[in-house]
Amino acid sequence: MKDHWNNISVKKISKLSNVSTATVDRVLHKRKGVSKHSIIKVNDALKELKNGVIHKSKKILFFCQSGNLFNEKLNMNIKLLLKSIGKFENIDTVFILPQDNIPTYLNFNFLKNNYDGLIIIAAENSKIKNLVQNFIFINRPVITLTTDLSDTDRTAYVGNNQVASGSTVAKLLTSSLNQKRGDILIVLSQPYRCQQDRELGFKKIIRYEYPKFKINEVIHRIHTTEDSYKTVKKYIKDNGPPLGIYNVAGGNEGVAEAIKDAGHQEIIFIGHELNNKTHFLLNTDQMLYVIGHDEKFEIENSILLINNFYNNKAIKNIESSILIHTKHNCSFNY
Fold this sequence. Notes:
Helices cover 44% and strands 19% of the residues. The protein has 334 residues and is of the alpha/beta class. Helix 10 links the parallel strand 10 (244-247) and strand 11.
């Protein structure tokens, strides 16, 4: 292996790009077997070293307003990712529940002096809009993750095509119901854009392709287990059991418990987000499908987009794959 590359040591390139010296050597000699991401990291590091400029680590605020299970899973993925991306080790995380207020310390002056970018998952409301617009006003990139904020000037969105996610559920649910006729229940909660888009995609397929099914809906205040349990239990008591339930929100275990307590385990139940709870519900046949997404891919690409912003590279939305989990194809580390 060469010790230097145009008077730049392989070890220096390896340290800055945070990949092995062997990988650096393969990239420099244009050998196969190296990921596109590693090639970019090595070439970026080499460019910085040639120019004699080492960019400081970007300090990023990762703000997530969601349920406990989703918050915990994202926090775990961020910690794992930071072990492999050395240039972006400065990430501060703020996790709050849907019913919580935005911390008062996230004011304009604090953001202006402390962060180079924002990655955000949140419901659509005026406070969130102001938070995003403050970043944009001071020319800092904002990446929306998982759920978009369509009424803001955010820089880019990374995540599923949520309309397609809802359409996918409609196809899965109707195929599972075969030739039956009757009601389908859709469960919603807070004004998250991803929920609205999922609902749109689901209803579009049902109404135009499967008119024999009638869509009913219930909306609960926040997507907790308790709220989803009470809402679904009351619906079944008042209206009888639907053929299927599509939960576009959180609180899947509450929906499953309501179905179980009502004695109608034959109801087809589909929801979102693979975690320890939904993994258990799949394995015990209380859910038929869980629609997921690749959180690691989305977080990593959000960080890379912020890097692109500061290197004057193209910024565009990045769509992640829609993952369909069943009891037969999923695994989850508790």
